[in-house]
């Protein structure tokens, strides 16, 4: 059931039969692009357990936090995610506006058609908002990718993580570092399950299906002969002068290689204000999952301020430079191919020099990032609810 109205329909029939005490009804929450590759393998694992006779059901709740096709719909199609059972269609707005809309609309849904468990992933606004709405109705919450911390409270995502973990019942962690963070915060060990990384489940499954974007031919790209850049954090893109300095540092130290920059919507307007005109800089529209990761896999290096991309580059063995002072994914630096450069654009010159001299570290893959995380999560849920 998908609706387009501002509020939920007055009458919502229960999505599932609650007559069996042993059945668990799970709401899987997705709202923004980083969520989609994390929920796809969980849904697949639930379906596999259903085929084996497990009395488990789910409804997919799309909050509509990301509503642009390139930021949302394209991922559903490419990753084989089913149509949402409900779309809350909250649209754009400030952090507070989106949080309020999501909480109100998800609460209304739960009051008319409750679930047994609210499963949230990652650290976007939808994750926090739905967790709060569910918990206030005494519905249990499971957080996938729990316990990661950057220590930077200027990041909205860090606040989302902390609030969500403060009210979560079941914590599924990507690393032992994340598990330790939860233990230190007072969470009981029996609530924490170190399972690995669902985003890597999707990456490993889809890797054989990566496909060249159209620009591959038009720009005459070749493997390891271009750089990929992604920037969206306010500290990097909100001030035109700073953004210009940063991009110029990349251009000036790129050895003339093509620079492919899929532009996040919040960044496009700022770039137009910089007046940058470099022959090897190519700003392009956001891409689908399969096309973007084809570019990443074949890149000389990636320069980013995203957290999730650092995980993907680590698994694919691609050098990665992160333009942030902190990271909630330290394993990508201590184990993987990522290096934290900080927010000073001048750090790019020595980093790129190191790359072109062939001195970048090789890296390794963190424990349990093996493509089987979602299966472990679903089996643990079945055990927890004694299905």
UniProtKB/TrEMBL annotation:
<feature type="domain" description="UDP-N-acetylglucosamine 2-epimerase">
    <location>
        <begin position="55"/>
        <end position="381"/>
    </location>
</feature>
<comment type="similarity">
    <text>Belongs to the UDP-N-acetylglucosamine 2-epimerase family.</text>
</comment>
<dbReference type="GO" id="GO:0016853">
    <property type="term" value="F:isomerase activity"/>
</dbReference>
<dbReference type="Pfam" id="PF02350">
    <property type="entry name" value="Epimerase_2"/>
</dbReference>
<dbReference type="InterPro" id="IPR003331">
    <property type="entry name" value="UDP_GlcNAc_Epimerase_2_dom"/>
</dbReference>
<protein>
    <submittedName>
        <fullName>UDP-N-acetylglucosamine 2-epimerase (Non-hydrolyzing)</fullName>
    </submittedName>
</protein>
<dbReference type="InterPro" id="IPR029767">
    <property type="entry name" value="WecB-like"/>
</dbReference>
<keyword id="KW-0413">Isomerase</keyword>
